[in-house]
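1st attempt posting a full record on here, be nice pls
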Amino acid sequence: MQTTARVFDDIARLASGALGTAQGVKGEMDNLIRQKIEKLVFEMDLVPREEYDALRAMVVRLSEVVEAQEAKIATLEAAQKPKAAPRKKTTSAAKKGD
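the predicted structure (as tokens):
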């Protein structure tokens, strides 16, 4: 009976060790893949997400400023134009008489 228990203990230790080794290999593979992807991204000269988000926020802000300036310019131009006096309508008979 003790022999059977000892065999089961040995199998449990072996399985535990194999599981720990498998987890270690998985961690190493994850690190290796991450390094390869980072190297590929760096070589492709891609923009990091933080820089993209910062630039996007700047563009949105500048677009709002441009829209506000365009509205202000349109208002100033409309105020600057002299109001045209209404023209007198001429009839076709008056034109023939000239």
